[in-house]
């Protein structure tokens, strides 16, 4: 499951960082393509791709900083009971 | 429906039956309730409260608000169809739909349970009108540079600053204010009746002259902590970003409405006006203007439908799709309105014909919710996203 999550995140981010290979722990906010629309697209991607809801409290930079942190965040959301 | 040729415009083949029926209902409402008064609103530079009440009573102001809060729960395509029809009739009223639904959308998406329960039923019913207070006298496109201070204080925030060009700000009951706090951009709800809130109507705009646009002063306005929307520090990215994404989408549709209005007026005129012994529709350069207008209309409409369908699928590409639609539709609206005035000749320069109003309204569409130039700079990034993988693997 986790590898699948990681690969889907990496595939998506590859569209934004095509010039060099993005390593799992690379900080994507330091790689040049940073805009409010990019951040919103990232949230929309996570929600659509994995069927989770990103809440206010989830909007921590550490949840979105790298492939590894996104994988951790998504895996945690998928494992958590739905509470709305 | 009374249109020039006695039949409704070509149905959008991508619409389902429910959406087609909704569009027909919107068109009928606009033809009956808005088109006949739009010129008067423009000249009076006012939207009468009873007209806002009418829009609320037919459920249009709350159309996209989730049903659990009393709204219509419509899909994005249907919201777009409404914006398109309203835009065809009156860009000011379309802008009311835009600002009101931007705030409702933000609250539905990022509001606390208390904010959703408190505000969404009122916004759905139109018993409260909402406006987005983002622009300032010195801050337009560079939204991250807002100067209005939102300072944490005992039990809440102190809002201090000035907002300008706030559409329907003169009549709104609540403002979603984006300002700057010690920890970065912050957004709060400010009710009109709080001490220290003053609005002044701005008149003599080039377009959307009935939009009750206001200059607003927030003089040491205290709001409770419960009025915080989204995260402290994310007022621009999270809150304004979410609002403007929907705003771009409905403005794009409103621009399509302007193009359609230009087409209707132009086709009517060239089928009636004679010069050099023939109807001017026979003149080749007139035909060229109508052809360009028609091509722009269909292309912009398809981009808007594309953006709406992506939005309904919650596809991340809905964001660039809305930006692309807004860019193309608003610039096309200016072309269409310019040509519509041109082929009306001197008549087009007077307020005896609606095309003069369309031109001013269209120009505003190019400026609000991200200027043409911002899109010209930013849209390239989406081209890089979409085509980089292809170009990386092939030689020129």
Quick recap:
Chain A is mostly helical and 84 residues long. Chain A has helices spanning 2-14, 36-50, 61-64, 67-79.
Work out the helicity level of chain A: 40-55%
Unreliable spans of chain A: none
Q: Given this structure, which CATH class of the largest domain in chain B is correct?
A: Mainly Alpha
Number of discrete domains of chain B = 3
How is this structure best described in words?
- The complex is a heterodimer of chains A (84) and B (396).
- Chain A is mostly helical and 84 residues long.
- Chain A is built from four helices and no strands.
- The longest helix of chain A is centred in the middle third of the chain and has 15 residues.
- The mean pLDDT of chain A is 85.
- Chain B is of the alpha+beta class and 396 residues long.
- Chain B folds into three domains: 112 residues, Butyryl-Coa Dehydrogenase, subunit A, domain 1 (Orthogonal Bundle); 106 residues, Butyryl-CoA Dehydrogenase, subunit A, domain 2; 146 residues, Up-down Bundle (Butyryl-CoA Dehydrogenase, subunit A, domain 3).
- The relative contact order of chain B is 0.11.
- The N terminus and C terminus of chain B are likely disordered.
Topology readout:
The complex is a heterodimer of chains A (about 80) and B (about 400).
Chain A: H1 2-14, H2 36-50, H3 61-64, H4 67-79
Helix pairs in contact in A: 1-2, 1-4
Chain B: H1 17-44, H2 49-57, H3 76-89, H4 91-110, H5 113-125, E1 130-133, E2 149-153, E3 156-166, E4 174-181, E5 184-191, E6 197-201, E7 214-224, E8 228-229, H6 235-270, E9 274-275, E10 278-279, H7 284-312, H8 318-344, H9 355-365, H10 372-392
Parallel strand pairs in B: 1-4
Antiparallel strand pairs in B: 2-3, 3-7, 4-5, 5-8, 6-7, 9-10
Helix pairs in contact in B: 1-3, 3-4, 3-6, 3-7, 4-5, 4-6, 6-7, 6-8, 6-9, 7-8, 8-9, 8-10
């Amino acid at each position: 499951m986790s590898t699948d999550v990681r690969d889907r995140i990496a595939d998506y981010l590859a569209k934004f960082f095509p010039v060099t290979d993005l390593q799992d722990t690379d900080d994507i906010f330091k790689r040049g393509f940073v805009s409010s629309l990019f951040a919103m697209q990232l949230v929309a991607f996570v929600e659509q791709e994995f069927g989770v809801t990103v809440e206010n409290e989830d909007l921590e930079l550490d949840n979105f900083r790298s492939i590894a942190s996104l994988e951790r965040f998504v895996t945690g959301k998928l494992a958590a009971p739905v509470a709305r | 429906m009374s249109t020039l040729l006695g039949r409704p415009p070509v149905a959008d083949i991508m619409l389902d039956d429910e959406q087609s029926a909704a569009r027909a209902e919107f068109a009928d409402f606009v033809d009956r309730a808005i088109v006949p008064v739009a010129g008067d609103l423009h000249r009076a530079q006012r939207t009468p409260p009873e007209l806002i009440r009418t829009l609320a009573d037919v459920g249009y102001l709350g159309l996209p608000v989730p049903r659990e809060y009393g709204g219509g729960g419509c899909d994005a395509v249907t919201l777009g169809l409404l914006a398109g029809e309203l835009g065809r009739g009156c860009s000011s009223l379309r802008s009311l739909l835009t600002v009101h639904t931007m705030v409702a959308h933000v609250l539905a998406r990022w509001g606390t349970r208390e904010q959703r329960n408190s505000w969404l039923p009122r916004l759905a019913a139109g018993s409260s009108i909402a406006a987005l207070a983002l622009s300032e006298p010195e801050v337009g496109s560079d939204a991250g540079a807002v100067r209005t201070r939102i300072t944490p204080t005992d039990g809440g925030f102190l809002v201090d600053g000035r907002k300008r060009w706030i559409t329907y700000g003169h009549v709104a009951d609540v403002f979603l204010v984006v300002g700057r706090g010690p920890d970065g951009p912050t957004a709060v709800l400010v009710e009109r009746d709080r001490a220290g809130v003053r609005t002044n109507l701005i008149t003599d705009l080039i377009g959307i002259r009935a939009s009750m646009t206001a200059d607003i002063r927030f003089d040491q306005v205290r709001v409770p902590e419960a009025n915080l929307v989204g995260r402290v520090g994310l007022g621009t990215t999270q809150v304004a970003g979410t609002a403007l994404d929907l705003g771009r989408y409905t403005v794009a549709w409103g621009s399509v409405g302007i193009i359609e209005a230009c087409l209707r007026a132009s086709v009517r005129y060239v089928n009636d006006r004679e010069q050099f012994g023939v109807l001017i529709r026979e003149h080749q350069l007139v035909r060229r203007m109508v052809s360009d207008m028609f091509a722009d209309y269909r292309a912009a409409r398809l981009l808007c439908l594309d953006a709406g369908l992506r939005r309904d699928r919650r596809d991340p590409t809905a964001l660039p799709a809305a930006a692309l639609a807004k860019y193309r539709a608003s610039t096309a609206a200016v072309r269409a309105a310019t040509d519509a005035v041109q082929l009306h000749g001197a008549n087009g320069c007077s307020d005896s014909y609606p095309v003069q109003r369309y031109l001013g309204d269209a120009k505003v569409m190019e400026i609000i919710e991200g200027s043409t130039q911002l899109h010209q700079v930013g849209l390239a990034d989406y081209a890089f996203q979409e085509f980089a993988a292809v170009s990386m693997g092939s030689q020129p």
